[in-house]
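Pasting two entries for a bug report.
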Amino acid sequence: MSRERGMNKKEGTMEDIRKNRSEDRLKPEDYADPQCPFSGEGYGVTAEVRAVPQQRIVEKLDEYMARRDTAGAERHLLYWLEEARLGKDLRGELMLRNELTGFYRKAGEKEKALANADRALELLKELGMEQTVSAGTTYVNAATANNAFGENERSIGLFRKARAVFEAAPRRNGVGEDSRRGAEGGASGQGAAGAGVSPEFLGGLYNNMALAETALGHYPEAEELYGKALQVMETVPGGEPEQAITWLNMAQTAETAGGMEDEAAEKRITECLERAEALLDKVWKEVSGNAETGAETGADTPSVNAAPVSAARRGYAAFVFEKCAPMFRHCGWFAASKELKKRAEELYRGNEAGGADRS
């Protein structure tokens, strides 16, 4: 009996030693920092995703851009990017990376634009969204940025991936997200697999892809894509700015392919400029308050039937006028170029003064 009790005592002692040793060891939460310095979540604790307010972010961004406050827009995007990262909101980060890609592309900051584009492409893989409409939008944004900075071969590969996604997706009737993001690149279109694609996104794809084909000397392919872009954008209410941009891009392609001295090319360039000018005049009547009904009566004051125009719409129109003016000047249409710059300045001043917040 005594021997048995002795053995039990010995076994209990070894167990106690092992237990004490285990308790003495440092655990990860004893030495690892929390995931966020301001959170109480320790090592190994999976944080709940804190989603950023995507729609509100985009609306506020539009307000900054409508006032030409690019510094404020950049601060706004970078603040919410950090919030998305800390909140482990990968979808929110994808949206912000897309917006930053377009923002830095327009600012001419190659490294920042391409870095954000590359991160957006990585996020598609992490989220398993490579065949969604969001993927198509991301491919277009990354491709457009690469094209803008001379990375044409990579650009065309990304455009082809976007085209495969968009053309396979069901079409969505009517106007979807802001057409500015379809043509210029941005984050709208975030959706699940099988979500419909808005016509403005398809039109933006064809137009921007045509520029990449032009840069590679593939002129017939570019012309075909421009035709597709116009065909799609003509179905979009308010799609005149994108149509005008496409006509000016066609003029650029005609010049590149044939040269300004070629008679056929010169005729084609003139046709394209005339079409673009007419479309931009229509945009001006809309955003300046002189709707068509007022213009037809010769009235100098806005028509009472004119629908309110948002600050974002006017800001985008100003951006388009600014963007189109250099091409008119390049082709010798100096008066048209000067008028577009004047209109852009007037719209920006109105937004900066707060006079455009009618909607």
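Entry 2 (this is the one that rendered wrong in the viewer):
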Amino acid sequence: MDNLRNEFGRFIKYKKDNFCIDCNKKISQRAKRCFSCAKKGKNNYMFGKENKWGNHTEESKKKMGRKGRKLSEESKRKISKNSSKFWLGKKLSKEHKNKIVMTRIKNDSYKHTMAQRIALSKKMSGKNGSNWKGGITPINKILRVSSKWKIWRELIFLRDNFTCQNPNCSYCNNKFGGTLHPHHIKPLSLYPELAFNVDNGITYCKDYHLKSNLHRNMQKEC
């Protein structure tokens, strides 16, 4: 260890590199030997000491490990039957497949009927659902996710020939197709009974529907 001074005159502790006594590998400051040399020969703490448990015989080694162990034919058959890879590469016959289908139909496990679907949906929807949080989602969002909303949307687009109904629209120039939005002529918040009425809907392009403040103007008029 040498003491040196820096630019400000303060002492700096300079640490020299420490090397192993046996193999000259770079090691930590406090150690004398590296990890491998410390366990070789006389340096090992078990050097010259007897093992309390004694050395294992060949019979005990065979019992402990599976290397070199031979299985009987019966044990091989049991493993092949119980293993998950038993059916890999094997094909079922048509008769076997038909039996599986018929048993599933009899037990109603192959496909649910409409009555079963309705019963399952009632059990999992509303307060019975696992994600129920007291009815936080607004009605507007519930309506837009329903299948009736999708049908109402498609009927309006078909009636208006998939074109924006804003005359001389500066956003889309009344081109066919594009990103279209269905718009309620009478607002949904005030007239929920007209939510799925086709006469209450009209087709607008996305930019005109979002940027023209249609919903604010409707609220002022109402």
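Dev reply: Rendering is fixed now. As a check, the viewer should reflect this: Residues 88 and 161 are 54 Å apart (CA to CA).
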